């Protein structure tokens, strides 16, 4: 467990927080960060999937713009900076290149899945459509998915949205459901960030249910 460096084909080196299970991994999982970087919460998510038997990597997607980004959830300036990096300064194609590098590296452990939260939820959806070598994807409250429905997923994909999410209104969720009617798209009576127990919006019952659905997908498509 700790930080390693990977290098994408264009020569960009980026940090990855990795955790490995005690036994031989039953596959690999890529965890994609929120706008707050690979912070304590994301590292805990990585450790959680490793405890379930998966070799798990969280690539520092923001390294393309600024290294060592690690924000909390209370500082408005950090929130605004993370939002600016994610949606203004970071090239999505570059982010997908680094995700592809992470998937390729994890493939030595077997099949690979991806799960992401917030901005990482959007990247998870885009990865399911364009990153090769993925066997499953689970998108949590991905802002912007409703504006990126012009591609088809290449691997089994599920989504999770909170019905009280002010950043992803219900009409956007309905748009996603209508366009992606072939996917399992789950809704929860909860707010944005319901999976994160470092946030006031954390909802334990929703988080546990979404995790059980994600693990069921991964165990079926990756770990079986």
The Cα radius of gyration reads 16 Å
Biggest sheet strand line-up: 1-2-4-3-5-6-7-8
Largest sheet: 8 strands, mixed
Mean pLDDT over all positions: 96
Uncertain regions spanning at least 5 consecutive residues: none
Strand content: 15-25%
The beta-strand count equals 8
Describe what you observe in this structure.
- With 224 residues, the protein is of the alpha/beta class.
- It has six helices and eight strands.
- It has helices at 40-51, 76-89, 92-106, 119-130, 170-179, 204-221; strands spanning 2-7, 13-19, 28-32, 55-59, 112-117, 134-140, 157-162, 184-188.
- An eight-stranded mixed β-sheet has the order 1-2-4-3-5-6-7-8, with helices on both faces.
- Strand 1 and strand 2 form a beta hairpin.
- Helix 3 packs across helix 4.
- It is globular, with a radius of gyration of 16 Å.
- The two termini are 24 Å apart.
- The model has no long low-confidence stretch (mean pLDDT 96).
Describe the structure in brief.
With 224 residues, the protein is an alpha/beta fold.
Features:
224 residues, single chain, 36% helix, alpha/beta
Layout of secondary structure:
Elements: E1 2-7, E2 13-19, E3 28-32, H1 40-51, E4 55-59, H2 76-89, H3 92-106, E5 112-117, H4 119-130, E6 134-140, E7 157-162, H5 170-179, E8 184-188, H6 204-221
Parallel strand pairs: 3-4, 3-5, 5-6, 6-7, 7-8
Antiparallel strand pairs: 1-2, 2-4
Helix pairs in contact: 3-4
């Amino acid at each position: 467990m700790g930080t390693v460096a990977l290098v994408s084909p264009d020569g960009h080196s980026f940090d990855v927080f990795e955790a490995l299970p005690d036994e031989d991994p039953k596959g690999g999982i890529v965890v994609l960060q929120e706008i707050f970087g690979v912070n304590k919460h994301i590292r805990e998510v990585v450790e959680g999937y490793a405890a379930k038997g998966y070799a798990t990597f969280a690539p520092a997607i923001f390294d393309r713009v600024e290294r060592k980004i690690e924000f909390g959830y209370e500082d408005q300036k950090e929130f605004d900076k993370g939002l600016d990096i994610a949606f203004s300064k970071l090239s999505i194609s570059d982010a997908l290149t680094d995700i592809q590098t992470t998937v390729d590296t994890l493939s030595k452990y077997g099949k690979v899945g991806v799960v992401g939260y917030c901005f990482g939820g959007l990247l998870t959806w885009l990865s399911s459509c364009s990153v090769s070598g993925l066997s499953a994807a689970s998108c949590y409250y991905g802002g912007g998915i409703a504006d990126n429905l012009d591609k088809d997923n290449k691997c089994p994909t599920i989504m999770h949205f909170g019905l009280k999410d002010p950043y992803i209104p219900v009409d956007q969720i309905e748009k996603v459901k209508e366009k992606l009617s072939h996917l399992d798209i789950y809704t929860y009576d909860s707010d944005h960030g319901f999976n994160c127990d470092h946030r006031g919006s954390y909802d334990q019952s929703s988080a546990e249910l979404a995790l059980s659905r994600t693990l069921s997908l991964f165990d079926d498509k990756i770990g079986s």
